Amino acid sequence: MVRLCMGLILFVVGQVMLVRAQDITEFENDGISLEFQEVATLQRNSILQSLDSLKQLSHSIPLSTYQDSLIYDRLRKTQRIIPLAYNDKIKDYIDRYVSKNYNPYMSKLRGLSQHYFPIFEQVLQENNLPDEIKYISVVESSLDPHLVSRSGAVGLWQFMFGTAKYYDLTMDSHVDERKDPYAASYAASRYFKDAYEEFGDWLLALASYNCGRGAVRRAIERSGLDNPDFWSLSPYLPQETQNYIPKFVAMTYAMKNAETFGIGVAETDFDWKPKVIMVDRSVNLQQIAQAVDLPLETVKQFNPSYKKTIVQASVESPKRLVLPTTEQFNDSLLYAALNNELIPNEVNGSGKQLLAETKTYTVGKGETLGGIANKLGVSVQDLRAWNNLTAKSKITGRTLAIKRDEPVRLASHNTKKTTITKSSFLAYVVKKGDTLSHIAARHKGVTVSQLKSDNNLSSSSLKIGQKLRIRQS
């Protein structure tokens, strides 16, 4: 039977290659019409579907109902590199994930996946890893970068401190890269490559992410099995890990077939296309928020790993910034912000954004940053950011750059006015998922504080159907 299936597979692959070669030759040499190209494409798809129909799941229960057959068939078509399975435990998790009670949760996951999955897919592809691994992050963290487990695991990929250190993630008073979608994904990819190289089975590699490679090794020793797969080793693994892979298979199935079960895509705070830049000097997120004309909290959501407003970076240790690109995105203001030239929340009388004038201060013997900060009316944190200083930096005799509150106009770069001389109002009805920052971003020249003032709002909470007045310049 196995030889027969292999023969069929080789035959179908041969047919695919034959049709593809014929198509290419005819397209190049005979200028075949678009209609014939479409027919050839349909032929190839049909053959690929035939090939897909030969795939079987590695482990499955007897199919006793029509629903069992339907789920089995969908899983079989979903299966790519990582072997999937179908059993009673997987069926229970599938029933849970596609139920009406779980619909809001699953819709939220789909909404968040629009932002996070492209990042995961890019990193996994760069590391030649199966795309399906991205669903592990859903099981681990529900795509919440700030999630902390009972055992102390943190971030989208739920790294424990020791494992994160081993895979070169930085965790200090300024940053926790376990929360960085990019850095944590690269670290997780290294882990999965190491685990697969050791165990030679994708599901065991994924299982070890839950219980640790040491626990899998000990389970193999206790079992006495040679080169076991996950399902044969499962009884020897911790109970949580026995459930972990069924959750992964069920979540993969539910997310892949979401539309079939009426699972929508909930709105999130990541409505804008992200722009990734690397900075080699310390920057102020408040100034970055001004440059992109969004609330500071929105910028922080795109950069969840940073603990403070000042992002400490240097040429030796550059940092990644992810910025939402709104209609109000201003390259000139962003450049000024990245060079610490903007004064937070300051505009001149004509409504133009202002730049800070840089002055210097030479540090005398015995002076400290704290004393200098008090003398000049600035913060120690700003002094360090402006001058790329660390706690161990020697400052005696050093000339420090000081960003004084003596502004000059950014006359030729930004003509956007923040004062309004003639106004009218637009009526807006609040929809599901709306926030004040999102509404403000969609309307040129409108700010959150302006929305609150014009609508007598004491807080940022909104209700679906609520009517707002939006000022139009």
In short:
The chain has 19 helices and eleven strands. It is of the alpha+beta class and 473 residues long. Helix 4 crosses helix 12 and helix 9 crosses helix 10.
Characterization of this structure:
The protein has 473 residues and is α+β, with helices and mostly antiparallel strands. The protein has four domains: 1-54; 92-261, Lysozyme (Orthogonal Bundle), CATH 1.10.530.10; 274-409, no CATH class; 424-472, Roll (Membrane-bound Lytic Murein Transglycosylase D, Chain A). Helices cover 48% and strands 12% of the residues. The chain has helices spanning 2-30, 34-53, 66-78, 88-97, 103-126, 134-141, 161-166, 181-199, 202-211, 213-223, 230-233, 239-256, 285-292, 296-302, 331-338, 369-376, 380-387, 436-442, 448-454, and strands at 59-60, 85-86, 274-279, 283-284, 310-311, 319-324, 342-347, 353-362, 399-409, 424-429, 467-472. α5 (103-126) crosses α8 (181-199), α13 (285-292) crosses α14 and α13 (285-292) runs antiparallel to α15. It is flat and about 75 Å long.
